[in-house]
Amino acid sequence: MNVPWGQLLGASTSEETVQHQIKVAEGFQVTLFDDQVPNARFMAVTRNGDLLVSQPKLGQVSLLLKDRNADGGADGQRVLIDGLKRPHGLALFEDWLYIAESDGVGRVPFDHSDGRIAGSYQKVVTGLADSGNHWTKTIGMGPDGWMYLTSGSTCNVCEEKDPHRATMMRFRPDGSNFQIYATGLRNSVGFDWSPKDGALYATDNGRDWLGNDFPPCELNRVEKNAFYGWPYANGDRIPDPDLGIQGGARIQQLIKTSIPPVFEFRAHNAPLGIRFLRSSEQPDDYRESALVALHGSWNRDEKDGYKVVALHWNDDGEIRAEDFLWGFLSTDRETVYGRPVDIAEDVRGNIYISDDYAGAIYRVQAGSVSQNNAEAPVSNRPPISAPKKPLAIDGNAARQGAQIFERRNCIRCHQQLPLKDLSRRYTLKQLADYFDTPTPPMPVYGFSNSQKRALAHYLMEREIQGTGRQLENFLP
To answer: Coil, helix or strand for 7?
Structure first.
């Protein structure tokens, strides 16, 4: 186990870090589009060219204005909608914004012209479970007019009781005709359709605790009613040592008829978002290729992944991979600068890459930065930002939180790995909700609501006192 601790403790980046550390494929330039997007996960580009970003641990979706003034960064940022239950996948269809929360899917009327919500939020899919390890839901509108949705497994390896877990599902845009589309997908966080033949491809994260180099993470060509192996097989129909090798005739038949991956990523690289490039502005070698975000390993001795790769399909169908954006992992394979999550592309060929580790969005463009910025129209539209609510620390809750922190011996880890920048990344409620789904290897303790609240107030109080600042709005 080799954990990128900044995921737990807080990390950040800067334009200087990007320019000196992050490398991009020849013919492209990378810039830091926004460095103030904590827990940035999945994205969608509006018809106006603005960027929507989900922030599940904050319970919100933010809107980042496109670079109209040609300075290389977002022209502003504001929270579009909040109060959601761990929103993750985003999809724009007609004049609706679809949001995949951890327990279902909602939609809200969206005005592309000014990036505003134009009506009330309504749930169209409800009752999905979000317990266990892989609670995120990812959504996408298919070329067939169906809305597709993925849900990961509750565990590392197990036989699920809920038929919706470890699957891809689909439904009509109004929520009707909900059905399971494919099974045996342990944690397919990202998916997209090839512009060449319309085939649906999905990434899938392989299981843990079988060594540094097995099993591979996967790219699957997903077809209706197909079974992709998990939890009985890994990779190319290799029986799982826990649930496959000793399985009976039914399980052996399932393994035999399962669909193997069309491409294998290195073990524990954690492929998440995938995006086929469609813009005519892309170089010929990249148009209709797919970019995949490798979030990076934690369950191996030496860190691996932490980059974006380009997948190219040869004429014979063979898939070739090459690095597209890298440098998020230092050459000594210890220091982590970022963890790519998702990729989005606008009609002008701007490629956006989210990073939930540094809380950032990067922009990649073909050609030089100066050329691209020179083409951008200048706007006098003022930047927008949402004011941050002041912390209101409850002294009694903080004292209870201190007792929990001591009783659980949290200092054992956090003495060497100090918590920092919590107030920049979370509100009190958001930090309390974080304990429901902490980042591994922090365990899920099953805290009650009052315990979560107490811990949040204690950790925020501890941070503020540690910086020497005065506590504002302190409630004795």
So the answer is: helix
Rg of the chain taking only CA atoms, in angstroms: 22
**Measured in whole angstroms, how far is the alpha carbon of residue 63 from the centre of its chain?**
16
Give the whole-angstrom CA distance, residue 275 versus residue 175.
Answer: 25
- Three-state DSSP at 461 gives helix
Could you list the beta-strand ranges (E) of 70-185: 77-81, 90-93, 96-101, 104-111, 116-117, 122-125, 137-141, 147-151, 167-171, 179-183
The whole-angstrom distance between residue 98's C-alpha and the CA centroid of its chain comes to 16
Indicate the pTM of the whole model: 0.83
- Please answer whether residues 299 and 1 qualify as being in contact, where contact means their C-beta atoms are separated by less than 8 angstroms: yes
DSSP string, 118-136: -S--EEEE------SS---
Coil, helix or strand for 343?
strand
Note if the bond before 383 is cis, omega within 30 degrees. no
DSSP 56: G
Measured in degrees and rounded to the nearest 5, phi and psi for residue 214 equal -150, 145
User: How far is residue 39's CA from residue 10's CA, in Å, rounded to a whole number?
Assistant: 10
Region of poorest pLDDT, from 119-133, 318-332, 371-385, 447-461: 371-385
Distance CA 306, CA 130 (A): 26
Closest by alpha carbon to 10, among 468, 397, 463, 470? 463
- Write down the mean pLDDT value for the chain: 90
| 187-221 pLDDT, tens digit each | 999 999 999 999 999 999 999 999 999 999 999 99
Q: What share of the chain is helix, strand, coil (3-state, %, to 5)?
A: 15, 30, 55
Residue 344 β-bridge partners: 352
Q: Work out the pLDDT band at 241, boundaries 50, 70, 90.
A: very high
Mean pLDDT across the stretch 292-300? 97
Closest CA to 337 of 26, 25, 35: 35
Secondary element (H or E) of residue 401: helix 395-407
Give dist(CA 449, CA 220) in Å, integer: 39
With beta carbons less than 8 A apart as the criterion, state whether 305 and 315 touch.
no
Torsional sign, CA 44, 145, 204, 23: negative
In which residue are the tokens 């002008």 written? 348
Residue 63, classed as helix, strand or coil, is strand
Q: What is the mean pLDDT of residues 350-362?
A: 98
Rounded CA-CA distance 341/337 in Å is 13
